[in-house]
Amino acid sequence: MSGNKILIVEDDPNLLTTLKYNLEKDGYAVTTAIDGAEAVETAKLERPDLIILDVMLPKMNGFEVCRILRKEMIVPILMLTAKAEETDKVVGLEIGADDYMTKPFSMRELLARVRAMLRRTRMGEVTPAEERTLLRIDDLEIDIARHRASLVGVALELTPKEFDLLGFLARNRGLVFNREQLLEKVWGYDYAGDTRTVDVHIRWLRQKIETDPQKPKYLITVRGTGYKLEG
């Protein structure tokens, strides 16, 4: 039994029941909310380890819920959308979601994604001092074990996936990775060629670690190939 607490926010009672049943069967403690307002209140009260958040919700849509929660807590957020348009996916990522799935989806795939997201979050748990990995690249400091990063001594507010991406590139400083490789290494499962999520996370990381995101010092684009971390 994992013991991780998951909040499901979904107004479709059939899907909510199905998700709750399968997640509990997989060993998770599940709480639920059926509208946006209840989602915000429940998340603040329960402090879940992961949130599964539908986009189309009564009272307050999932985008607004995600935006509010991102200001108050760092928790992996998996967004569900019934729309296949690329703009909906990008909006979710840009406001702080770590991942998204389009309905209808495979329950097996959802469970795999949940496990992958939680596994990467657990990498941030404190380990004995001698086992910590502290990486320094000029003014950028990344503590892999403690899941913390800072720039010129100021803590960076990174989402779990932003930290995973930064940490991976820092551990492989100077090496170039294409989008498919980053999806495999950082996200941990097959995205079937959908690489937009990498570009969105790269853009947001630049907003947080670069003095001038248009002329990056650390997070470099290698035209026609991919990305690397320098400095």
Structural features, described:
- By secondary structure, the protein is of the alpha/beta class.
- The protein has two domains: 5-122, Response regulator (Rossmann fold); 129-229, Winged helix-like DNA-binding domain superfamily/Winged helix DNA-binding domain (Arc Repressor Mutant, subunit A, Orthogonal Bundle), CATH 1.10.10.10.
- It is 41% helix and 20% strand.
- The protein has eight helices and eleven strands.
- It has helices at residues 13-25, 36-46, 62-72, 86-94, 107-122, 160-171, 179-187, 196-209; strands at 5-9, 29-33, 50-54, 77-81, 99-102, 134-137, 140-143, 148-151, 154-155, 219-222, 226-229.
- The strands form three sheets. A five-stranded parallel β-sheet has the order 2-1-3-4-5, with helices on both faces. The protein has a four-stranded antiparallel β-sheet with strand order 6-7-8-9, covered by helices on one side. A two-stranded antiparallel sheet has the order 10-11.
- Helix 1 links the parallel strand 1 (5-9) and strand 2 (29-33).
- The model is unreliable at 124-132 (pLDDT under 50).
